[in-house]
Amino acid sequence: MDKNTQQLIDKGEMLPLMEEFYTIQGEGFHSGKAAYFIRIGGCDVGCHWCDVKESWDANLHPPTKTNLIINNATSQANTVVVTGGEPLMWNLDYLTDTLKNNNIKTHIETSGSYKLSGTWDWICLSPKKMKLPLNEIYKITDELKIIIVNKQDFKFAEEQASKVSKNCKLFLQPEWSKRALMTPQIVDYVMKNPKWKISLQIHKYLNIP
């Protein structure tokens, strides 16, 4: 990578874009809403059940000018969801500042394992045991989404919920390949612990991106 490209990446004026698309938000609090998704490459968290492992290696996703990404987004949507990979591996200040100057709402989905950059209307924190969030993100998180793979994840969910603000929305989501096994357990858990809500990946049921 040449020096100029690296400088642009450092400033957030280029990002390793994996994919971008306009679709329906399929998970969590904003399920069912239209949004433009920006998926940025690069992740070192390493969830074994990740359904976008091709996002992990940022080198597979050539740096793209952020202004081009912004132009694509603003021409189609009024809400942008930045996801990954782990998007906070990159400087997102330029991206969100420019989006907000265009009256676009900015949402992020993150493990919280890197320092927060960018200005956000909605922060969805999805902590992972392999690389826990930094403490700074818990109190400003709008939505806590815990992926449930096995029974032990309910304990992890409560540990994480104890760190967020009282206004944070709490969601339990079955890992897709374990949904038949874990969804009934999540239903039972939420009925006994109604501070939680169920998140389902409705985009997969609808067969859309």
TrEMBL record:
It holds the Pfam family Radical_SAM. Substrate binds at residues 24-26, 39, 83, 209. Keywords: 4Fe-4S, Iron, Iron-sulfur, Lyase, Magnesium, Metal-binding, Queuosine biosynthesis, S-adenosyl-L-methionine. One of its GO terms (molecular function) is magnesium ion binding. Its EC number is 4.3.99.3. PROSITE patterns: RADICAL_SAM. Binds 1 [4Fe-4S] cluster. The cluster is coordinated with 3 cysteines and an exchangeable S-adenosyl-L-methionine. [4Fe-4S] cluster binds at residues 43, 47, 50. InterPro entries: 7-CO-7-deazaguanine_synth-like, Aldolase_TIM, rSAM, rSAM_sf. Pathway: Purine metabolism; 7-cyano-7-deazaguanine biosynthesis. It is an enzyme of class 4 (lyase). GO terms for biological process: tRNA queuosine(34) biosynthetic process. Its cofactor is [4Fe-4S] cluster; Mg(2+); S-adenosyl-L-methionine. It catalyses: 6-carboxy-5,6,7,8-tetrahydropterin + H(+) = 7-carboxy-7-carbaguanine + NH4(+). It comes from the Bacteria. S-adenosyl-L-methionine binds at residues 49-51, 85, 126-128. Residues 30-209 form the Radical SAM core domain. Belongs to the radical SAM superfamily. 7-carboxy-7-deazaguanine synthase family. Catalyzes the complex heterocyclic radical-mediated conversion of 6-carboxy-5,6,7,8-tetrahydropterin (CPH4) to 7-carboxy-7-deazaguanine (CDG), a step common to the biosynthetic pathways of all 7-deazapurine-containing compounds. Homodimer. This is 7-carboxy-7-deazaguanine synthase. The gene is queE.
